[in-house]
Amino acid sequence: MKIATYNVNGINARLPVLLRWLTETTPDVVCLQELKAPTEKFPLNAIQEVGYQAIWHGQKSWNGVAILSRNEQPTEIRRGLSGDPDDTQSRYIEAKVNGILVGCLYLPNGNPAPGPKLDYKMSWFTRLQAHAATLLDSDVPVVLAGDYNVIPTELDAYRPERWLEDALFLPEVRQAYQSLLAQGWTDALRQVHEKEAIYTFWDYFRGAFTRNAGLRIDYLLLSPHLKPRLVSAGVDKEVRGWEKSSDHAPVWVELTD
Question: Where is this site: Transition state stabilizer (predicted)?
Fold first, then answer.
């Protein structure tokens, strides 16, 4: 079973890239972030034409998350995180697919920092930690996949010294991510590529992709049930080089059935 996460950076603007990638790689389950489209503008028909069913949580111009499944209709469990009834940003959706509970998330960026955006990021992180703990307590196989907007270690950034004051690399943000892992989650990509400088994001400036000046900020976290089932994990880096592609590349894991 292959599960992937992909920040598409505008699903309608990147639709040809997304459809090509789905057709060529046929992952079983896909988590998408940054749809940047209201609910009614989600391109369901085009996605169904290449063999996928979907649920999504849209938002005009910003954010937005979706879960696609190649084998069955995802059964939606929840959208949004509890803990802040005034939060209207579309950043989390959860579904049961193929016997696995899949949480798709787009964690806030937090810049400029310090300031209200960093405060929102840390508050959202706290809410995610609380929900992640309840998922582990439920004693079912879970994947938490998405764009975490965290650079956990120096290995996860090209020229990490350039990110010292950025909200993706601040000590409190990195600690929040480590605290999440400490609940019992496994960072699948790092588990497989323990000491490799492997990236999932390259910005559009200064030839970052050509120079491989990237960041690792997209993750699939596995609950203890799934860690023994982990076969492989990787990044479809070549997709970042396709015409009109997102600044992220798809990240995936393969699990035994």
Answer: 149
